[in-house]
Predict the structure.
Amino acid sequence: MTENVIKVAVVGHTNTGKTSLLRTLTCDQSFGQVTDAPGTTREVISLPVFLDGAPALAWFDTPGLEDSVGLRDWIDGLSDPVKRLDGVERVERFLNDPQARAHFEQESRVLAQVLKSDALLYVVDARENVLAKHRDELHLLQSCGKPVLPILNFVASQQANPQPWIDVFARHAMHIHLSFDTISPPINGQQAMYETLGQLLGARQTVLRALGQQAAIQRCHRLRAAVSLLATLCVTSAACRRRAQDEPDAVVAATGLLEQEVRGYERQFVTDLLKLYQFSEHDFLTHTTGWDGSSWSTDLFDKQTLKALGIDLGKGAAVGGAIGATFDVLTAGLSLGAGTAIGATAGSAWQGLGRWGKDLGAKILGQRELMVGDAALIVLVKRNADLIQALERRGHAAQQPVVLSPKAASGPDRGAKELIRFFNIVRRQSLRLDALGLLRSYGPQRSLTEQAQTVIVQATGLKALLLDELHC
């Protein structure tokens, strides 16, 4: 490791989330071992961070401090007959004593790494009370003569009480601290970490600021890639069509195939999204809207799902009628449940080609063209936009899967009209391409996907992430 690499030791009492912090900072679920048992980390483990392809910083995960009270007594008892020892000299003398190192094995590894580092992150559990052992830990770390940045972990918990910790930090002349919950980190958490370290390491501030900017750019690109994936899902699903004989059984069968196709697109979207955010499918396994046997347990076409989002299936809208501003009039859609009877009247709960132009060939042949309805498409967009927002706020140390309730989706009125207008644009374009025999050759057009991104951002809570929090 070169001398120019900034070395930062992550220290603290056992089981305060040191390894969890590094998992979240580096978006690496595989780093170290995270359990509720104390003393999981027994050795010092390094983790590099690159800037423009070259190593710029190294994190050092250290074992937990277990007996700071006894160690402080030991170190305070060290003396020299010739001169008064300062804190660093006392720590060095302790580390040069084989008997002392054997007695305080964990602590000796920590202090040895601290002396070799440029700065320290002192991680505390904000849910715990400040005890004598914590004050002694702070005293020992101060004795090493290195800048210390206290990190308040688990601040998102209802049991968190950070103020006593802030007060004790101030008593030890540590007036800069950072709240960073490793399970639900702040949106700009990585950038804030580097910039705050830059305040403590003035000589390395330029590099740390560049690392912060790099983290912000990477997060911005990841979010835009997620929106692009959702836009592709939206366009592909809105363009889906099935042709069937104009008979109830045939239409129901074609509807089932259409629903199956859209579910497949959504499953692939979720797989790609989790990969983009460096999570696994185990991070999204719930009994509500997660995976269950490789399918959504809260089904996209399920009546209860739609009702939970404010969609009332009992109120139909006439085909060709005006687009309403609420979900109550968005039920002019495809089958919203297997076996739904198909009506041929203007008040049907189906969307056929009559709304976007006549398919004379199909009509002459006694066939119907079926497309996914507005209601199901709105559910598709909104719940997956909610998933993106959940992953944006999820730390890679989280052990419990993401839980999304149908009621957590964005409000029913927000962006509904804009989404429906866009769905109709996609449908018209799909029909034109199909008439020219080009749909299979070209697939979703790039211009439509780009337009979908704009519509989705405006119609969901993703706009706040892009503009207010990420500034990208």
Remarks:
- The longest strand covers residues 54-61.
- The radius of gyration is 29 Å.
- DSSP finds 17 helices and eight strands in the chain.
